[in-house]
Design a protein that fits this description.
alpha+beta, Beta Polymerase, domain 2, Hydrophobic Seed Protein, Hypothetical protein af1432, 4 domains, 6-stranded mixed β-sheet, 25 helices
């Protein structure tokens, strides 16, 4: 970072600009947090400054907001430097229009470096609020000017583990409906930053109960509070769902819940980056939260007066798909979330029917594929959340054993053949058999996968080719 500051100081002298380090950068330096980016404001042409900086640092330039003259220089190692122009005639006016006091501090980089705390410009007691671990707005129109600041407040609470000022809380409650106007692409980074935390369930719950903004993003949460109580549930659907998410988080972070090899498999699996910087674990948490979101629309009362929710997993999957599209998630993320909700009942069905035969499990794995471990975890958290509220002393060991048995089968028997390309590629198979690309090759690959899974042939290229030739001969 010292080299970057030196470069900016040299550019400041060359262009004769006033340059200030501002916002979260000052805050994070004071908190001694890892610095992944820097924010600066200049008194003159911010684009001109950013273009020169990009050349000097051999980075790339991104236009963030042309109207507000915001630009980003991205370095080769991923470090980012944002350059903006004063909002107002000077740095004090600029800070007046920022969101929270802890983000409304500035430092004139012509002063000593590293930062000398006595020279920090702090007109709204940001340093005091850092000590008090408090998030407080600066002016009463802050959330009207930019409703996304309400989400940022929740994200800062989660990242810093801070409380929110009483007056700020009242202002968020008053303006909560404005969250509906926030574009999905601005919601997603804030939401997924919260989902990155180990106890993200707590902050999502807080966003719903205290801030009143989560239901503005996901309106179906409101109707979830009105349904869900039945023979198997003593609480409403929302309470059950947030508890399920809490349990999923506690299971995945537990050191001794699963056998070591299963825990290690989950750690590798859930750390996979699916899109942008978003991981499978963050999606899994959303899946746990939304697993029963279809219950309000699927609610039926049978002729015996019992409340039923048949088909809720399908209606829920369609709702989640709409949410994913609103949040501008990738196609793969959307498909994964859809699968979580649509298939989360399968492990329970296998348990109730006492069917963990090879045939039943193969079908299960073939349906769930790469999302198998995720869905098993959601199903486990779902059932424990249900049963523990019915009877806090109930032993859930048998269902845990059931889930571990399925997970073991997936890891040892299905996963090795899930992608046959590690043994033989589709092109190799077509070339060896003289086949054209089409449906036939897909059917042959499926029969080969099934044969290996059931131990009918070995996991070798020779065994695969031998079976493939037999299959083609039968069709001839």
């Amino acid at each position: 970072m010292k080299a970057i500051i030196t470069c900016i100081l040299q550019l400041k002298e060359k262009l004769k600009y006033d340059v200030y380090l501002v916002g979260g950068s000052v805050r994070d330096i004071l908190l001694e947090r890892e610095i992944k980016d820097l924010d600066f404001v200049v008194a003159e042409d911010s684009k001109h400054f950013a273009e020169n900086l990009q050349k000097d640092l051999n980075g790339s330039l991104v236009e963030l907001d042309q109207e507000n003259e915001m630009y980003r220089v991205v370095l080769k190692d991923g470090f980012t430097i944002d350059i903006g122009r004063f909002k107002g005639k000077d740095i004090l006016q600029d800070l007046t229009k920022r969101d929270f006091t802890i983000n409304a501090m500035a430092y004139d980089i012509s002063k000593r470096w590293p930062i000398n705390e006595d020279d920090i410009i702090d007109p709204f007691s940001g340093r005091q609020h850092l000590q008090e671990k408090l998030i407080k707005h600066i002016y009463n129109e802050a959330f009207i000017d930019d409703p996304a600041r309400m989400l940022r407040a929740a994200r800062l609470m989660a990242e810093l583990e801070y409380e929110i000022h009483e007056e700020t809380l009242k202002l968020i409650n008053k303006n909560a409906e404005l969250v509906k106007s926030i574009p999905g692409e601005r919601i997603t980074p804030e939401l997924f930053a919260i989902l990155k935390k180990d106890n993200s369930y707590y902050y999502l719950s807080l966003m719903e109960s205290k801030l009143g903004i989560l239901n503005q993003i996901f309106p179906d949460l409101d109707v979830m509070k009105d349904v869900g109580e039945c023979k198997y549930h003593v609480v409403d659907c929302w309470t059950h769902s947030i508890y399920t998410m809490k349990l999923a988080e506690s299971i995945i972070s537990s050191e001794a819940f699963f056998e070591d090899h299963i825990k290690e498999a989950y750690e590798r699996h859930t750390s996979e980056i699916i899109a942008a910087d978003r991981t499978r674990l963050q999606l899994l948490k959303l899946g746990a939260l939304f697993h029963d979101i279809g219950k309000p629309s699927a609610k039926k009362v049978d002729n015996k007066g019992r409340t039923r929710f048949r088909g809720h997993e399908i209606t829920g999957a369609e709702i989640v798909k709409e949410y994913a599209e609103r949040l501008k998630l990738s196609t793969r993320e959307t498909d994964i979330l859809y699968k979580y909700v649509a298939l989360h009942m399968i492990p329970l069905v296998l348990y109730k029917t006492n069917d963990v035969s090879g045939r039943a499990l193969y079908k299960t794995f073939n349906d769930m594929k790469e999302e198998t471990l995720d869905i098993l975890l959601i199903a486990l958290a779902d059932i424990v959340a249900t049963r523990k509220l019915l009877d806090p002393n109930e032993e859930m060991g048998m269902f845990k054993v059931h889930i571990e048995y399925i997970a073991n089968n997936y890891l040892t028997r299905f996963k090795p053949v899930e992608k046959l390309s590690s043994i033989i590629s589709g092109n190799e198979l077509m070339e060896a058999l003289g086949l054209q690309e089409g449906i036939k090759i897909g059917q042959i690959l499926e029969e080969i996968r099934k044969a290996i899974y059931f131990g009918q042939i070995s996991e070798s290229k020779e065994g695969i080719l031998s079976l493939a030739r037999e299959l083609i001969a039968k069709e001839a």
